[in-house]
């Protein structure tokens, strides 16, 4: 089952699957033709620690939480209809005559269709570190994503700058790492860097 974040929403529904070899090759693994030949077969890791303002989030009505994510909290389905794995229909209209999936919702802004096809292999891990100095939960998401090129992550992050979810999260730490391919028999990790 798709894991849930501390806001109660399914996290990673549209992730690249391990069985999607073409998707992994296109979006996750560095190719021999890419700029850094020594990274061929490796990937770039982005890690971020994201604080979630849970007390503010919990005061929101369910309808507003759904609008913020662009998905139904219970089922994980896009607000355009279907089930958790139904592709979002960004042209669908709601009964109020407005787009079913809000223009500033997380699912719309993060979706590959709205980021020149940029995809990444991502996973979030919930954390709880007790309380902060204000007595609020020091909790959130430790976010990891692997991508063929760090620009894929940057492209999505630029789009997420107008995400209404930003009112309830704070990025408190991040980094980018080059993860070279595994070692060949009789060699070592990163050997191509020294060739």
General description of the model:
The protein is of the alpha+beta class and 195 residues long. The protein is 18% helix and 22% strand. It has helices at residues 21-27, 54-58, 62-69, 106-110, 150-159; strands at 43-52, 121-131, 137-147, 169-179. It has a four-stranded antiparallel beta sheet with strand order 2-3-1-4. The chain is globular, with a radius of gyration of 19 Å.
Summarize the structure.
This protein has helices spanning 21-27, 54-58, 62-69, 106-110, 150-159, and strands spanning 43-52, 121-131, 137-147, 169-179. It has 195 residues and is an alpha+beta fold.
Rounded mean pLDDT score? 94
Described by its quaternary structure, the protein is: single chain
* β-strand amount: 15-25%
Low-confidence stretches: none
**What sequence of helices (H) and strands (E) makes up the elements?**
HEHHHEEHE
**Structural class by helix and strand composition:** alpha+beta
Please tell me what the overall shape is.
globular
- Number of helical regions: 5
